[in-house]
Amino acid sequence: MKYAVVGFLFFCVLHVHFRGKVRLPFMRQLFDHSSFMAPINLFMQLFSRVPAQPFLEAERWDELAPLQQNWQVIRAEAVNLLALQKIKAAEQNNDAGFNSFFKTGWKRFYLKWYGAGHPSAERLCPQTVALLRGIPSVKAAMFAELPPGAKLNPHRDPYAGSLRYHLGLMTPNDDRCFIEVDGQRHSWRDGQSVVFDETFIHWAVNGSESNRVILFCDIERPMRFRWAQAINRWLGRTLMTAASSPNETGDQTGVISKLFTISYVMGQYRRRYKAWNKTAYQVTKAGLIIGLAALIIWL
């Protein structure tokens, strides 16, 4: 039985790895967060009602039209946040989902995050929050800033229960500022939207001299059956709410983000050990992986 379980888990990881044209190095994929979610994502992709392709037609989601129709209203609130310096990196390493993005200057301000509460968004962005509240399929939303010279390295998001929606608010309107999903590029434009599957390998860069600010949303993946949609909704509400991160004091911090703060501190010691002796670090890492694999087989 245990071999069947291990075999199924490995099959799920292979499914993630070979999905799409662009792939991560296999060893990186093996220990990537998307591999730990692979069994859930296999379910989501198997029963998905949308085609397995990097970009999807935004017009498919009629309920999102109010966002594009009111993009200037939304932009005005984003511009105000920029002036107040509220679009920023997490200050206490308590953003499990996006912590690695902050290294190159990427910043965010949460407007909505599944079941978590963000009173700061309701206070500072009432019109945008009201628009989002009227669209139940939008499970999460934020303003995301990518300053000149910033780059997000190739990655795939861990949870396949959603699709990604971007609406250009204040962009360079320049092809040097783009996102590439499974080898296909899209350059943001003011007032224009795009939907893509974030479980394909994607990366982004702002090679222009101007800032880029977008409305960034997770929309619920449409499923073929009502029972599958109900499972997706429950998992999103349970798992993703636990990864919530605050804009400021008073906003909700999920348990995963709280635990991430602890792991971040431990990671600092890991990086110091690696800097002290890289060979010893690699031997220790290999020993832990082999030990974990042996424990799983033994159990």
UniProtKB/TrEMBL annotation:
Q: Which organism is the protein's source?
A: Duganella rivi
Write out the similarity annotation.
Answer: Belongs to the aspartyl/asparaginyl beta-hydroxylase family.
- The Aspartyl/asparaginy/proline hydroxylase domain extends over 68-222
Ordered alphabetically, the record's keywords are: Dioxygenase, Oxidoreductase
Q: Mind telling me which InterPro entries this protein's record contains?
A: Asp/Arg/Pro-Hydrxlase (IPR007803), Asp/Asn_beta-hydroxylase (IPR051821), IPNS-like_sf (IPR027443), Lipid_A_LpxO-like (IPR047694)
Molecular function (GO) terms for this protein are: dioxygenase activity
Can you tell me where the transmembrane regions are?
none
| Protein's UniProt name | Lipid A hydroxylase LpxO
